[in-house]
Design a protein that fits this description.
Elements: H1 2-21, H2 25-54, H3 57-68, H4 73-91, H5 93-111, H6 115-128, H7 138-146, H8 151-177, H9 179-182, H10 197-214, H11 221-238, H12 250-266, H13 271-279, H14 285-301, H15 304-311, H16 318-330, H17 340-351, H18 358-383
Helix pairs in contact: 1-12, 2-7, 2-10, 2-11, 2-12, 3-4, 3-5, 4-5, 4-6, 5-6, 5-17, 6-8, 6-17, 8-16, 8-18, 10-11, 12-15, 14-15, 14-16, 14-18, 15-16, 16-18
Transmembrane segments: 34-53, 74-93, 152-177, 198-215, 221-238, 250-269, 289-309, 321-346, 358-382
Domain Citrate transporter-like: 12-317
Subcellular location: Cell membrane
């Protein structure tokens, strides 16, 4: 509820700023036309993944990962790294934070190991692993528009090198910090059968078909919406009580819309000139590091969405735009509000009775965020 209230407040602030600055109605309509497909995708993909979780798809995947680990925690953790990366790349960082967090925590408890390394793996890779595809992050969907609709494969071609580095650096840091916990062994326990095999099969098939559809060249909201409708129909037949209003992430939609409107209206107060002065110009390695650094700091001070929107005008070339995405996607690892995925992750942890102090989170983030953003940006700059 707090996220929704903050979003409503931002909508009010944005509306007031738009009135004060005299933002043309046509500009507001253009903003709405740009963001509605993004928000519709978020709603649809959230419904799909929530219903798939109800059908126990993710539980079964977690149990299979536990068996594949063959009693070695480090091997199981490696599978979780892959799972979190793939989930983020194809289903978005918020999906990973919401759905994978309880999976890995319950899995850790099931095998008797510390859940914190698994939980941190989830939230760090939800952020740093969101550079692969347009669907991985709302910022990418917005940037794809500015890149003249390069499509999933064109976007991946631009971002693949920094995306791989942005995944590798946090994994190395986690492996060093939690090497003792990850060196332990566990006993493999076979899980029970799913409650409704029909729901499970339908959900699994929809997810398998959705992944290639998201990179097919269609606007991503179309396959996501189709998948949500199909699964909703199946659940109407099999388990109607699951279909409730809370499946729709309305708070996230209100929050994101409020951020978009507020930042867009703030440009009338000279915001663009300020960020252009901070981010500089040029596409040399030092220039790209500057853009990425400003993006990372902005994301941790505000949130990655308004940071991207505020800094988007400095993305005057594909190289500078990718550097900005590196900063706002891989950088928000320090403050709890730096990305909505981090807030959602912490709420899930609290609901599961897992405590990690924000001081501990910020301390580790201050180490891994500069390393990740710096290494990913340099790798990108040197391979262009």
């Amino acid at each position: 509820m707090r996220t929704g209230l903050v979003g409503a407040g931002l909508l009010l602030v944005g509306a007031v700023l738009a009135l004060v600055t005299g933002t043309p109605v046509d500009d507001l309509l253009a903003l709405g036309e740009r963001i509605w497909p993004v928000l519709l995708f978020v709603v649809a993909i959230t419904v799909v993944t929530e219903l798939a979780a109800e059908a126990e798809v993710f539980r079964v995947v977690a149990e299979k990962l536990a068996r594949l680990g063959r009693g070695r925690t480090v091997v199981l953790w490696a599978f979780i790294v892959v799972f979190a990366t793939v989930s983020t790349a194809f289903l978005s960082l918020d999906t990973t934070a919401v759905l994978l967090t309880p999976v890995v925590v319950l899995l850790a408890r099931h095998i008797g190991v510390n859940p914190i390394p698994f939980a941190l793996t989830t939230v760090w890779l939800a952020n740093t692993g969101s550079l692969f595809l347009p669907v991985s992050n709302l910022t990418n969907l917005l940037a794809e528009h500015k890149l003249d609709g390069v499509g999933a494969f064109g976007f991946a071609a631009l971002s693949i090198v920094p995306a791989l580095v942005a995944v590798a650096v946090p994994v190395v840091v986690l492996g060093i910090v939690y090497r003792e916990e990850l060196a332990r062994s566990y006993e493999v326990d076979v899980g029970g059968p799913v409650a409704d095999p029909v729901l499970f099969r339908w959900s699994a098939v929809v997810l398998v078909l959705l992944v290639p559809a998201l990179v097919s060249g269609l606007e991503v909201w179309i396959p996501a919406l189709v998948a949500a409708v199909v699964l909703s129909i199946v659940f109407v037949v099999r388990r109607r009580e699951v279909l409730r209003f809370s499946l729709i992430p309305w708070q996230l939609v209100v929050f994101a819309a409020g951020l978009f409107l507020t930042v867009d209206a703030a440009r009338g107060f000279g915001l663009t000139a300020v960020v252009e002065a901070l981010a500089g110009s040029g596409s040399a390695p030092a220039d790209l590091l500057r853009v990425a650094g400003v993006g990372a700091v902005g994301a941790n001070l505000l949130n990655n969405l308004p940071a991207y929107l505020a800094l988007e005008p400095v993305g005057t070339s594909p190289e500078r735009l990718v550097a900005l995405l590196i900063g706002v996607n891989a950088g928000p690892l320090v403050t709890p509000w730096a990305s909505l995925a981090t807030l959602l992750w912490h709420e899930r942890l609290r609901g599961l009775g897992v405590e990690i102090s924000w001081w501990r989170f910020a301390g580790l983030g201050l180490i891994v965020a500069p390393l990740t953003v710096g290494a990913a940006t340099l790798a990108f700059a040197l391979t262009r």
